[in-house]
Amino acid sequence: MTAGTASRVAAEGVPEPYRTYPPLLRPGDTVAVVAPAGPVEVPETTAARDLLESWGLRVRITPRLLATHRGYLAGTDDERLEDLTEAWLDPEVRAVVCARGGYGTQRIADRLDYRRLATAGPKFLAGSSDITCLHHTLGERLGLVTLHGPMPACWPVHEDRSTAEGLHAALFGPLPRSLPLTGPVLVPGQAEGPLAGGNLTMLASSVGTPDAPDTEGRVLVLEDVGEAPYRLDRALTQLRRAGVLGRAAGVVLGDFTDCGPPDQVEALLRDRLSDLGVPVAAGLPAGHGRRQLTVPLGVGAVLDTALHRITLPLRERTPQ
């Protein structure tokens, strides 16, 4: 964490070394399903509602959830911005759950009124992929732990029990004490720091913006989907040249789904990451694979490659 970030966090009263973990949910609470990126269809909306209601939650579908624009956006920028803002400011809403990723969050990130959003108090943001942009903007500026995890309109959360259980535990408790690492160790060692990161392509495309990833002293989680090895190389090289990778305390690799032959992807990751001088481990079941664990970004963590796990000394907050 940079000195500027540390002073800002201290000034806002966010306890170190953790951001604020929102109060846990309980049955009967209200959550909002939003689409700040790609378009959502009716069957996906139904699947999201069914899952969340099966957990005893009241589900609020935002007014413009099914809007589309240009074929790849869930409505115009104004519509997506309004839906996200209204959901976050709704005093009854305890969590804002993103239905899916796709593309679009970067288009509205600079238009969010963070001072206004901060008046709503701590609540959950859950999502992944393109939502990586919101994890960094909302998490950093509001001092909140955000949940990088499966999205209820997407198939893994409905077909893999551990995927659904992981998201449920992050929202309701008991909070997980560790996350497993099942892949190879690229560089052995131990690292400690807040978890940060998400989708590699989104992080690389944020370099040079007001919300470029702050990796100083953090354990950086990386994952991606559908990117050829040369495109992964390009994104990692961009992060290296920008100094983003060199400031991390450690690197954890999630799934690189449909990114080419696994041995070629592993060789590329070794080439771009093994000389950073920090521990690097693969095999975190997070991202776009068939099993998607929920990763609480902003939580202090310990990466231990010898134990093949990330330890999470989480502090639970009683449901309100």
What features would you describe in this structure?
The chain is of the alpha/beta class and 320 residues long. The protein folds into 2 domains: 3-172, Rossmann fold (3-Layer(aba) Sandwich); 178-311, LD-carboxypeptidase A C-terminal domain-like (Glucose Oxidase, domain 1), CATH 3.50.30.60. It has 11 helices and 14 strands. The chain has helices at residues 3-11, 42-54, 77-89, 105-109, 114-118, 132-142, 156-159, 161-172, 200-205, 229-241, 262-273, and strands at residues 30-34, 58-61, 93-98, 124-127, 146-148, 178-180, 185-187, 190-199, 219-225, 250-257, 280-282, 295-297, 300-304, 309-311. It has an 8-stranded mixed β-sheet with strand order 6-14-13-8-9-10-11-7. It has a 6-stranded mixed β-sheet with strand order 2-1-3-4-5-12, with helices on both faces. Helix 9 (200-205) links the parallel strand 8 (190-199) and strand 9. Helix 10 packs parallel to helix 11. The longest helix is centred in the first third of the chain and has 13 residues, at 42-54. The chain starts with a helix and ends in a 9-residue tail after the last strand. Residues 1-17 have low confidence and may be disordered.
Topology, element by element:
Blueprint: H1 3-11, E1 30-34, H2 42-54, E2 58-61, H3 77-89, E3 93-98, H4 105-109, H5 114-118, E4 124-127, H6 132-142, E5 146-148, H7 156-159, H8 161-172, E6 178-180, E7 185-187, E8 190-199, H9 200-205, E9 219-225, H10 229-241, E10 250-257, H11 262-273, E11 280-282, E12 295-297, E13 300-304, E14 309-311
Parallel strand pairs: 1-2, 1-3, 3-4, 4-5, 8-9, 9-10, 10-11
Antiparallel strand pairs: 5-12, 6-14, 7-11, 8-13, 13-14
Helix pairs in contact: 10-11
